[in-house]
Design goal:
This protein has helices at residues 2-18, 29-41, 45-58, 63-78, 82-95, 102-114, 119-125, 134-150, 157-184, 188-201, 208-221, 225-238, 244-247. It is an all-alpha fold.
Length: 262
């Protein structure tokens, strides 16, 4: 029995010396939150995240728990951890569907994919945003659009409307990039259908001009002169002297772009 007690004491001693001591052990919810806010103020996203996660785990109920989720979403967004940011937003929306901060969380959800980490590189290469993976663009559009519909009087809605207008145009441009990809590989039916989607679903955006031109070319390749003439008639009516008749499908290169120097 004495030997067993000695072994237990030894194991306990090892656990106490080998484990890391949590400096926030025993802190109240208020103290954890105050420290997390201080970390956020100094841009210390890592420590802010730890304190906010500890707050949520130790005190899962109450106002501090609610605010910790809001701040976790913000901290992870600023620290370029979009998946963690979206996870925090999803937990918040599930647990507090009628919270007065829901409009902000929808706005933040839109911002997470509106400016992905790859945007830093695109500022150097001048990559067209419409050439990126459209998934993030659509996620951003859906979040901003939900904000606009559910909270038309929110202080975040005016900015969301501007971003939605940009997103609609950019998503339409992405669809035309895909249509051109199909056309250049001989998939003329797919190219025509994709371009038609832009014309019908994105009325009024500038890239409709190129979509109509692509439709005309695709129908010509498919030996469908009636449909080709229809596309040309609509193109000429809405875009007299279209630039695509002269320049073709390829846009003029920007030689500032370092990619074009290689």
């Amino acid at each position: 029995m004495a030997l067993a007690g000695l072994c237990l004491a030894f194991l306990a001693g090892c656990a106490s010396t080998s484990g890391k001591v949590d400096p926030t052990a025993g802190w109240s919810a208020e103290r954890l939150y105050t420290q997390a806010r201080a970390d956020m103020g100094s841009g210390n996203w890592s420590d802010a995240r730890k304190n906010l996660e500890s707050l949520e785990a130790r005190y899962p109920f109450g106002l501090y728990a609610q605010q910790s989720l809001i701040d976790q979403a913000y901290v992870n967004w600023k620290d370029e951890e979009p998946d963690q940011a979206k996870a925090a937003i999803d937990r918040f929306m599930q647990q507090y569907p009628n919270h007065p901060g829901t409009d902000y969380m929808l706005y933040l959800k839109g911002m997470i994919t509106f400016t992905p980490p790859s945007a830093i590189l695109s500022n150097i290469t001048r990559q067209d945003p419409s050439e990126r993976d459209p998934k993030g663009l659509r996620e951003s559009y859906e979040a901003f659009n939900e904000l606009i519909k559910r909270y038309p009087d929110s202080r975040y809605t005016p900015d969301a409307r501007k971003r939605v207008a940009w997103l609609v145009n950019t998503i339409a441009e992405n669809e035309v990039h895909i249509a051109q990809y199909y056309y250049e590989r001989g998939a003329f039916v797919a190219a025509a259908n994709r371009a038609q989607t832009v014309v019908t679903d994105f009325e009024g955006v500038p890239i409709v001009e190129k979509a109509l031109y692509l439709m005309m070319l695709s129908y010509q390749k498919l030996d469908l002169p009636s449909l080709a003439d229809d596309a040309k008639r609509v193109l000429d009516k809405n875009f007299p002297d279209s630039k695509y008749y002269k320049q073709g499908l390829d846009e003029p290169k920007s030689y500032w772009n370092p990619v074009n120097w290689l």
